[in-house]
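Hey, resending since the last one bounced:
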Amino acid sequence: MTGPHLTDAAVLDHCRARYPEQFAPAGAELAHVCLSFLPARRFVTTHDLADVAADLAAGMWMEQRSGDRGPYFVLSGSHHEVFVTPAVARDADHALADVTSIRSPRGLARRSTVVPASVGFYDKRHERYCDLAVLHRQMNEAVAAIRERDRLRRRMRDAMRSPRLPPQPLGELRAEVSRHFAPLRMMLDLLARRSRDEDEVVGAGVVVGHRPDEVYVRLRTSSGEFTDQRSAELLLPGGGVRASVLAVEEYEGDVVLCLAPPRNAQLMPGLEVSLREDGRFAMRRHREALEAFLAGDVEGDWEHLATLLCRPSRLPAFEVPMLDDADPVLHAKQEAAVAGAVATPHAFLVQGPPGTGKSTVITEVVRRLVGRGERVLLLAPMHVAVDEVLGRAGSRPGVFALRVAADERKVDAALQRFLPDHVAETYLRDIRTPRTAKGPAWQAEIDRLTVEERLLTAYLNGLAQAERDRMARDAAVRDHTARSAERERSIGAAFAEVRAADEALTALAGLRAAVGAEVAALQGQLDAVPGGRRLLTRALSALGGEDRVSGLWRAHREATGRLVRLDRDVELWHHHRATAAAEADRLRRDHTASAADWGARLAAYGAAVAGADRHLERSAAALAAVMGREPDRYDAQEWQSARAAVTIRIQQLHRRIGLEQRWFETAEASGPDAAGRLAAELRQTANLVCATTTGVASADLGAADFDTLIVDEASRVVDSEFLIGAIRARRWILVGDQRQLPPYVDQVDEHHLHALTALHLAERDGLDLGVAVQKLAGLWGEEQIQHQFRTTSVTRAATTLRTGDRWPGYRQAFRRHLRAVAPGEDMPERTVLAAMRRHLVESLFDRCAEGLPGGARTALLVQHRSIEPIAALVRQPVYQGRYDQPTDGPQQTPLVLPAFGVPVVFADTSAYGRRARDEQVGHGFVNHLEAEWVRRICVMVDATAAAGATRPTVSVLSFYRHQARRIRELLGAPGYGGYPALDFRVVDVIDRIQGQQSDVVILSFCRAAPGRDKLRDHYGAWLQDVRRLNVAVTRARRGLFLVGHGDTLRNLRGVPAAEEFYRHLFAQVTSRPDVMTVVRDL
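The structure tokens again:
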């Protein structure tokens, strides 16, 4: 069998035959789950227990939790969560499962669940046995078995389709994964230790204010200072809940905490609360995800995920079919990206420079995946990137999106309708009354889809039957051929025996003739002896003597004996020949009869195959009449996916009709409980969940699993951050550009790890701490130019650790980790620094962009965002010419200010001498002249825009936070009232704008060193980060204004790529006067 004929049933049959133990029912799949309840419980009147039991029996998930009264368990189905506690039967003295409550699920239901033999609710007085601890263990074993079956099915399908790369032995892969991530585990352990060592802060206070998105607590006592952007535990009368500390403020001499409202508790004014804030550990979620991955607790194929992380070049190749209904908006490269992302069985990478349509590709991929019934998880490291795609995909037909966030205030205001608490209102806003109900239209769609489902089922059943008949015929042919060959071998052997007997008889006949002649000759000689001589011979023989005559008698006797034996042999061979001839005749008759019977059987098989083919052709014709295209029998999986999508759509529509009806009932008479259940049930239909890469771990998603994970801006995501979402999904799609912003590195964490390494080096080699830090800086700079080693900050952190007497607590742990990750190395610090670069500075996307097989990645090359002069600034120095301009379609219109006459302007402050200098403020810089020039440019853009029909969008960027703050002050933020014709989008540092764009971008370089012909290497380190330069320039669509000190920028040294960028920049602005210019005063 070859791949094109494969059906799911055929793959499953092969798997069951080859792996019978793995595909045998697991313990939980044979379990009869008996749940006990007291009839007086409130949930008995608010829930139909038969419906709840049916929901769990259709597929359930079980997890253990801890509460004030000990452990309890949650059994989750698609529409219900059943809370149960272990109990003991009063009379039978065995384990019971005591139901304490039933609720609608807050998170998303799992798609991969365990189906038990039965689920039932029983009066507690009946004492039905159910050991929750045993059931929980069996459920975990069943989940592992289901994942293994999925993996085996995928591998079997791959093996049956086509040959693949030889798999790496699992033991070797696990060892490689362990080695690869050992340094990261070391770093995370050290950062976790710091979190534990930092004193926790506890306090008590009272709630003094409450808003929908904020709660204010006035502290009365505290053991220390609370810090914003951390999580705090609130101890309430009903138990503990967690909330994020959004801000810490002072009001009338008291400290007031601004908290994000916890989901499962109401904090009303006057409520007394106790708070506890843990030490800071920014990578807590990273660590949890990494440990889950290393333990094999992943939804997808662990081997594929491990290979992607450690050796992406070894991922199996796969075929990418052409899109048969491609969106005409997509160009060829985008079509290829969509096709690969949809077809991949494991991972796919889309690399695209700015403006090449990455968000368009993601939107189309989402549409196609949810269209075939998948649930998609869309993540990005920044909220703005998540919201950019959600804004495009969230309202597409068939897409039901859910936006989750730990701090919902960071979600774009226009997209907060997709938040969990608002999604029901958003979805049902058009069906609040029966007059505007969509039920009839949905029912009509169900009727149409039901016909499609029936025809698809008939076609697929016909395809499966044709395949079974063909397989049965082929198996019979193989069996008949084998049996015929065996019979022919037996007939040949029988005739060979006959021939051997003939040959033996011929030889015996010759031998007998010779012996007979010998006997006759001896008899003749004896007959010629006289009678007297015979008597003398007998007498001599009696006395023991022998003469010539006695010798003749002896020879005659021996010859006669041989002749008798030969006659016996001849008789035996005649019998053997007769037997062999009879067997040969019998075998030949049987063979002739079998051949005649086989002809009839073959005709029957042929009739069955032909009948199945005719039925299949009729099904295909009926399906083509409805679907509009002839199905290809060699792509069964495509039509199986189509039927699955239709079935899921029918289920969704049925559910929405029910939801709509319950909405009417709820709006008329129901209380908050019914409305809450309606909203929870509605959330279960979500097929697109959007969050940040770390925020998804804090979201209330329960144990939800996903078919596909899409990570946008993946070039900013390190391995452990990727794993937070990856362990929940079965396939992984990475989208990004390694030449844009790199992963964000928490400087406190980085400096802490560098400081620990410096302290160890100083102690081991007997070095001064400053010398050890400088040595580390040298090692770091050998490999990492763009990400600078902060010598001053590391020295300060190391000094604090040593003088604060905290280093001894780290010493043993650091040495133990170092021996594990760099055994026997003379300079283990080099290994530590390399691991920090690999796991904290470099992204998985960077490795995969070069390492993935060619068929598992594609590059987008045509940009549609910026006018050509702007794109030209980065085309060669950043993308080596692989950044094309569209040759057709609509183009952006340049925004030209009358004062300049061109859309790209470099405003050079070099002529202003010392007045152009920057000023250090704290750890940052401010350039007042540049800030003023930015303001003047905004005035000119506003005046030009006032004469136009639309308000252009404007972003003002800088490399330095203090400079950005100064510019905001000059522009009158946040209202920007002096510029009524402008729509300001981002006025901040460059890092805040990736994933966004504006008509006009104004960039302030800030750093200026007038009068200095030669600058030290790496002066203005931020200005030499080509990735940030690339992001800043390519945010602009129609106009770009660069404000900086030209002499300083030309003299920057230390980063060859940056030197090339500035050489190219100044060559462009001075050699293309029709579209670019340099001005020296404003």
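The radius of gyration is 42 Å.

Sorry for the duplicate.
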